[in-house]
Amino acid sequence: DVKVTQSSRYLVKRTGEKVFLECVQDMDHENMFWYRQDPGLGLRLIYFSYDVKMKEKGDIPEGYSVSREKKERFSLILESASTNQTSMYLCASSLMASGAQYEQYFGPGTRLTVT
Amino acid sequence: AQSVTQLDSHVSVSEGTPVLLRCNYSSSYSPSLFWYVQHPNKGLQLLLKYTSAATLVKGINGFEAEFKKSETSFHLTKPSAHMSDAAEYFCVVTRRNDKIIFGKGTRLHILP
Lengths: 115, 112
Known about the structure:
The complex is a heterodimer.
Chain A: E1 4-6, E2 10-13, E3 19-25, E4 31-38, E5 42-49, E6 56-57, E7 64-70, E8 73-78, E9 87-94, E10 96-97, E11 100-101, E12 105-106, E13 110-114
Parallel strand pairs in A: 2-13
Antiparallel strand pairs in A: 1-3, 3-8, 4-5, 4-9, 5-6, 7-8, 9-12, 9-13, 10-11
Chain B: E1 3-6, E2 10-14, E3 19-21, E4 23-26, E5 32-38, E6 44-50, E7 56-58, E8 64-68, E9 73-78, E10 87-94, E11 101-102, E12 106-111
Parallel strand pairs in B: 2-12
Antiparallel strand pairs in B: 1-4, 3-9, 5-6, 5-10, 7-8, 8-9, 10-11, 10-12
């Protein structure tokens, strides 16, 4: 079974702090994704990566950055956390071959509260 | 451009009755379509997927979905609801070399 793990289930940070959310997958997937999920807005893509050291902006990248130094690990960074970044953050990974998108495997999520 | 619309934000059914969660999509080329389920405070889990093989797709936990190209629909059904089916369900569309698009979700409530 594919396993995607996230470093924390719950996190409370103060405004202005630098926040790191870590995601690790164990299936050698090329693609990794970070989403945030808010009531009524569904899942919104923040960033994704299709290879080591490669990254692409998603729909809402402002206020976030990412790092992918190893294939299995994809980090989301909030440089200076703000209260409007309070949300559920979901990491996912997937295979991609010949341009075809395969199903995503999700981690359990990190519920971040910024006070 | 691709898009996906889940027609109901909330659906309530009684335990033991059929479930229908509706999803319409828009895609210029042959899409891949997925349904995911999310139980409270959990990540998303794949229920089933359509990738241009059989149009009737069977998934886990008794769910199935039918790809209808003429109606651009991919509705999720289950013959008999169980209390454990209470969750949020997401319809997803993608295609080769293109973005993955999530629907806004449908929250399924099961009445005893």
